[in-house]
Design brief:
The chain is mainly beta. The strands form four sheets. Strands 1, 2, 3, 4, 5, 9, 15, 16, 17, 18, 19 and 21 form a twelve-stranded mixed sheet that branches. Strand 10 and strand 11 form a beta hairpin.
């Protein structure tokens, strides 16, 4: 081994030892805690220069509560097999030290993410027939097989609901720029009108989301399947803006391991939407001409829709 290589190897070993010591002392070291590493990951880092980090997050009951979801700029909710839901969290302005639990990607994600400029997509894996499409998509795919040092398994819950991402090991620092603004969405004063509303519910065949306005927190408190949605440290998940976007959901060509057909959510097209902000519901329209286009939200009179500053949830609702 050359001298420079030996120095790098020694530095890597010391860094790995220090990371394990910190993890052992802090119980996982993540945003919100809860995730504790069981085995040290190998040193095989892959760097990413992408501005936006997208993480596919598990959302079935055994996977809750999530870690780091409260730091996302945008939280997309989509329907998956058996009528369940899964989350695609978008990070740019701030990136927490741990995010998860991470699960597999879907075909829907590839079309949705084309709005962003070559984002990094962190996911646990994908159906074998979908993998070539992910590799060909205009994004930086980041499964554990590509960068195992970026992931670890926690001992606080059973597999497959215990895989977590360390964005700092990619590395993927926060940019200070909100991902919503990167795709043309704008924060500002509410448009005229709006109907006062205290709660809105979205139902999938096997999942349910409710958003309740809190006058104290000035946020929409999130419920999942009838229970308050919380972070790993016990805080409530809450959104400044919730967009209920009506879309076409159709069967895709892919199936899961149990033989269930994966639904495909069409994010190219146009339709109606409801925007929840500051205790009111606003009628809106959405349009996206091509996969390369960004989604535009407008008021009924054709003006650009504005959103409340803070985390945005975009929930895809089958029409």
């Amino acid at each position: 081994m050359h001298a420079a290589g030996a120095k790098r190897s020694a530095a890597t070993s010391l860094a790995t030892l220090a990371l394990l010591i910190v993890t052992a002392c802090s119980g996982g070291g993540g945003s919100g805690g809860g995730a504790q590493e069981t085995t040290p990951p190998p040193d095989n880092r892959v760097s990413s220069s992408a501005h936006v980090l997208a993480v596919k997050i598990d959302n079935v009951a055994p996977a809750r509560p999530p870690t780091g979801l409260d730091k996302a700029d945008i939280v997309y909710v989509e329907q998956v097999e058996a009528g369940l839901s899964r989350i695609l969290a978008i990070y740019s302005s701030a990136v927490p030290p741990v995010v998860g639990p991470v699960r597999s990607a879907r075909e829907t994600d590839l079309e949705l993410l084309r709005q962003f400029d070559r984002p990094t997509l962190a996911y646990s894996g994908a159906q074998s027939r979908l993998t070539p499409r992910i590799e060909a998509a205009p994004l930086n795919p980041l499964p554990p097989s590509k960068d195992p040092d970026a992931y670890f398994r926690s001992n606080d819950r059973p597999a497959p609901h215990n895989l977590y991402l360390r964005p700092g090991n990619i590395p993927h620092p926060g940019s200070g720029s909100n991902a919503a603004e990167d795709i043309g969405l704008r924060f500002g004063p509410a448009p005229a009108g709006g109907k006062p509303v205290s709660e809105q519910t979205v139902r999938y065949p096997a999942a349910r989301f409710a958003f309740t306005w809190s006058t104290d927190q000035k946020r929409w408190l999130v419920e999942m399947d009838g229970a308050p949605a919380r972070t790993a440290d016990g805080g409530r998940l809450a959104a400044a803006t919730v967009v209920l976007q009506e879309v076409t959901v159709r069967p895709s060509l892919f199936r899961d391991r149990s033989g269930n057909t994966s639904p495909f959510t069409e994010t190219v097209g146009s339709g109606s939407a409801t925007v929840l902000r500051e205790g009111k519901a606003y009628d809106a329209e959405w349009a996206r001409d091509t996969a390369e286009s960004r989604t535009a939200f407008t008021t009924p009179d054709g003006r650009r829709m504005t959103f409340a500053a803070g985390q945005m949830w975009i929930v895809y609702v089958a029409r």
